[in-house]
Batch of 2 targets.
Target 1
Amino acid sequence: MSAPAAPSTGAFPNPPGGFAPAPAPATRRNVELLLLAFAVVITAVAVVLVEAGQNQRITRELATVALADLALFGVAHLAVRRFALFADPLLLPIVALLNGIGLVLVHRLDLGSEQTAASNFAPVPPPDANHQLLWTALGIGLFVAVLAGLRDYRTLARHGYLLGLLGLAALVLPAILPERWSETNGARIWLRLNGFTIQPVEFAKILLIVCFAAVLVSRRDMFTAAGRHLLGVELPRLRDLGPLLLVWLACTAALVFEQDLGVALLIFASALALLYIATERVGWLFAGAVLTVAGYLVAYHCSDRVRIRISAWIHPFADYHNTGYQIAQSLFGLATGGLAGTGLGSGRPNQVPFAKTDFIVATVGEELGLIGLTAVLVLFTVLVLRGLRTALAVRDSFGKLLAAGLAFALGLQVFLVFGGVTKLLPVTGLATPFLSYGGSSLLTNYVLLALLVKISDAARAPAPARRKDTAPTAMMERPTALIPTGSGEATG
């Protein structure tokens, strides 16, 4: 006699054999679409508040921003459905909301500049909101291109050294160019070609993180070799410090010759973080801390700009009308905003120099208050945590390190920006991801987002849905110490 069939329970009735079919895997794309619609609505409401506060009427800018936001992120959503079906459903909506808030703030600062020019009988400066919208479109186009063109992110590991050389070249290029092609406001981080301006150091960040991840997977044994012990800390061997010293020299050169504090610290700290994630050895952090202090001491004695930044950080009101004016105005704006802010369109954020770029967070704090500033910070925190969760869930070592490095770099950049605006840290000149005005930052961060979406798709996809068109190499399958020894690796 055959065994009786198992009783049928739930929404999936058992077939005659007694085994229920597995439910279809959830892609969560409809959740993503709903959250994107919510982000577009918030952006449209914010534009209405800005227009009402500044112009006392609604202009066509409302329709332009709202419809463009809807169309652009609709295209991005369709690309995710087509090329990364199982990707994390929170990544794109969070970026859409941050990008929308940035567009609104740039438009609000444009209106403030127009009013200031009119009251001073000066020429009205051209608005930047349209340019930011164009850069957003290009960034989403690059996002779609990466999703469509990068069939398997693990192929990047095969070109790790080449990408690293390109990243180092992008990092030091502005320092060796003539000042008329690379310098703006004392910082030599630009590349100007026939009216077209871009920051190559922004792209160096992504290229070098990919290189670090590839090298750590392929040469992990070199970085985990035992060295001397000092105060209970196992230090790396001197001959193994070569790659870290190379990165340190490049970052120190950028700090001294390009007068740029932010990118140098961001790249070096990202390298250290990946070293620690891959090896779990505190000795690398100790060595990195020593090199960081040494690099900043060298820069402090060799660079007037670094000394000015440190002095303005410690005593911003000692030279209020000169070096301390920016940070002082930022603190005044944050104090004016208080808990709930002055309201969109009702503050005076244009009093802060470079309010659209380096200090756009001060605009958030003045007009949306501590509540709005906290909400923006929570959005960034969730974005970083989802990136780290992707690093834990993905199954290959290169993907783990790459996702962790990208998420860490994003989180560190936000921390440095918020710290500079609130006087917790010296001003670094970094742009706030997805918020600040500027094409280089937007393009780079959309590439970062595309890579995280690709890795999260691989992490969340069920086994039959994983792409098999690119077989992983032995280098890509080597283990890392991302998870403590003895615990099972997360498969999410």
Note: The longest strand covers residues 191-193.
Target 2
Amino acid sequence: MRTAAGMSADQAAGLLGLDRAKISNIETGIRTISPERLRTLACNCDCSDQAYVDGLVGMARPNGRGWWERYRGSLSPGLLDIAELESYATRMRTAHTAHIPGLLQTSDHALELFRVVLPPLPDQEVALRLAYRVERQQIIDGPNPTEYVCVIHEAALRMQFGGPRIARSQLEHLMAVSEHDHIDVRIVTFEAGAFPGAGQTVNYLEGVVPQLDTVQVDSSHGPEFLGEEAQLSKYRAHLDWMERIALSPDASRDFIYDIAIHL
């Protein structure tokens, strides 16, 4: 809102009664902003989209920070950003080609992945990432779970990370969670043919208003976050395509079962 209105950071600082450094820290997510200051900023930036302003106000945390802040200084900011995005999302859509989604991984499966990170992680770092992964999963396992639509390619199902026993247990877990009303697991088979994208993981997190939607994609150097409408539109179409060629939820569950029993 500030940049769209042509307001400098110094002007925003003067308006809100803060120093310049605090404005920078608010905009990079290090500091919180109160709902009152947020509404003042919106008013002075001539933002008339009340639903958007209300959505931003709902993201303000005047009474404390999220659980992920306990990991600040121990894990990368990008990983913490993923947890924060998930906590605000009203619905999540994901596509995975080579890996089972992190939110649906068993602890044994996740450990195998953390142990092949380059450069190798010491044991205490592996344990830290596993604890963080388990806490992230509360977004779909907790008392008020978020709707989760997940498309997984057959290739990911056939990866035997940790060997047949761990792989079978992971597939059994995937079948179990797919029974939940708020979790929709769909499989794209090899026979489904080509689909758009470079095969990277795509997470589309829907906000309370479309302007707060965010796409997160994986890369070898960490997560990347995209929020421009052209980018969002591209990845919505990408996910629409994959969901269209995927098996139905029931057929997907049967497909997973068939792979599991042959491990």
Note: The mean pLDDT is 94.
